[in-house]
Amino acid sequence: MSRDLSKIHELIGDLFTWPERESDWDAFRLSEEQVAFFKENGYLHNVKLLDQWQVDRLNEELAEFLDKDYAGSDLFYEFKSNESSDPNTVLFHSLGHWRIKEGFHDILWNPAFVMAASQLLDDKPVRFWHDQLFCKPAKHGGVVAWHQDYSYWTRSVPMQHLTCWVGLDDATVENGCVHYIPKSHTWGLLDKPELAGEMDGLMEMLTPEQKSLFHPVPVEMKAGYATFHHPLAIHGSYANYSERPRRAFVINVFADGTRSNTDGVLLDGVPVIPTGEKLEGQFFPLLFEP
User: How confident is the model over 66-81, as pLDDT tens digits?
Assistant: First the structure.
């Protein structure tokens, strides 16, 4: 059995250095303009979180998961070598790699990430929800259908969540970068579609007015850069038919004080937290407190 890194709630490697003085955090703060853009549009892109050497280190760890002979780990919450039902289009998707690999553990405590996350959560303490890997191989990478993240997360309340998507390759229109529908975070909660199903499955849930405002904006970014989005922001990504892969990880967080909204399983392998009780402890660590 693998060593379970979810028991360690601090940096354990050399990817990042935790600031020692309050003034050291200033280097990681978002500008007022960036926060305002997020509030208005429901997303904020092109936030640098990693240098190239850090990207390279994470891709080395990721390569083990993507190896066709990888036997898996009992520490994953989910592991799907292909989330798509179509074998001709591949979408690698997993949850729980923070428990297995040192680098993917430590990115949760990346100072640039936790500071930005706290600011975008109205300067509240940040608590970890879960992580994800989304990888599209060259030439036949699958889609991630239009969706809202919170439509899959109603088992946690209140809605005070935030998603951070970070590219481990340069993300372009050609290789399936994320697209957003600006201001769609004001449209309310919609039903959840099949994540790797038809790209436009969400469209039938929209009103005529919402359809008229449905203008996707592609977010092209260099590897190591991030985009943050609101839990109701509609987003998705098209297939990768390019000659290059499109690898990325996602960190999902919420403001401290979020509670369970189910007596069922929150994440596979995580002990049940009864309805109404605070999400905290081993699997939901506090990442940052301003």
Answer: 887 787 789 999 998 8
